Amino acid sequence: KAPGTTQGTPVTRMQVYRPPLVWQGIGDRRLKRHLRKGEKEREQASRTAARMELLRQEVVGGLEAEGMEQTRRFRQEEIAAAVPVATAAQYFNLCLDTFGPYSVDYSRNGRCLLLGGRKGHVAVVDWRSKKLTCEFHVHETLRDVQFLHNEMMFAAAQKRYLHVYDSTGMELHCLKQHLLINSLCFLPYHFLLVSASERGSLHYLDTSTGQLVAEHKVRLGPLRCIAQNPHNAAVHLGHVNGTVSLWTPNIKTAQVKMLCHRGPVMSVAIDKEGWSMVTAGMDALVKVWDVRTFKPLHSYRSPRPALALDVSQRGLLAASCGRLVQVWRGGLRGRSEAPYLQHSLSGDGSSLQFVPFEDCLGVGHSSGVSSLIVPGAGEPNFDALELNPFESKKQRREGEVKQLLEKIPAELITLDADDISKVEQG
Fold this sequence. Notes:
Elements: H1 29-52, H2 76-82, H3 85-88, E1 92-95, E2 102-106, E3 112-117, E4 121-126, E5 131-137, E6 142-147, E7 153-158, E8 162-166, E9 171-175, E10 181-187, E11 192-197, E12 201-206, E13 212-217, E14 225-228, E15 235-238, E16 243-247, E17 256-259, E18 265-270, E19 276-281, E20 285-290, E21 295-301, E22 308-311, E23 317-321, E24 324-328, E25 341-344, E26 349-354, E27 360-365, E28 368-373, H4 393-405
Antiparallel strand pairs: 1-28, 2-3, 3-4, 4-5, 6-7, 7-8, 8-9, 10-11, 11-12, 12-13, 14-15, 15-16, 16-17, 18-19, 19-20, 20-21, 22-23, 23-24, 24-25, 26-27, 27-28
């Protein structure tokens, strides 16, 4: 039978925040009064958010198999025929076999798609309306692409230097301090563009001022996979000796080093809460780690070494294993017996990313780009004041100014995000 999507359990009511009594035992009356006022404001904000939960009527969908059926046997054509027309339009394939393999990156609000071919092809697409925003060719090797704070600017790691372009394809900057960059990631709340190079150096660039905040010598070989922790803004690097190291811009040495695989680490991904880390190695193992304790939880055996990993907003884990893409549901909290979905590509996969606020997975491979439907992957409720997929030009400009005013200094990045709120007593 053709598969369909079903409504999941309703969104549960938020638990009201109970602030710790950090002001007890402090002799300074002014400081005590300030801390007490801040705790009351946080508790009131938590109560307001709990009441607003009643207005969140959108629920998460998913695939449900009947009888002896298995959801991993469902084909994308069958899923597209069973879902609404707007969701079915998200399934498509772009045949771009001339300049592949491709790297894909979505804007933070899930509105635009950035494509970067290994042989120099760059394109920005409004993937919902399928309108091409800009397209050009850099006429040299392109290793990675990355959107910055919004879809109006993006960075491209080319053959020798790092280049920054705007949404029309005009080159804004050529950063010659960043040599032979392999991987990129962006810290949106700090306006930091993080780049990992073939020479084993890690760079932090402040995109609001153009200054190089920090440059670390990792000394663990070439850096080819990078991921950021959304909880504390720490950068996770995978190395050829099987270790994963955690870095911050204010300390020149690695905060943590973990031995994760017996061979080179191929990809690293972090869940949206920042509590779980997923690594893939040349040993064809996909391991899930608890970042709070730095201990392994469970592992999966992949048919081939996974070159790309990503975790959706609802905790679905996707892995690109050669020409096969596998998606596990509930694969972070516990070990899943079988994949939730499987799809065969027309080329070897090189990168993948879930679309924010959509049940969709973008996959870049050697033959082009594919957009797959993954029911239950995206968060159905979004905060329009934080990320708005339907924002206007005026809202985008105002949001950019607000982001700059609320920018967090790079010196405040620590592994324990709660350290900044603690008060030294005595």
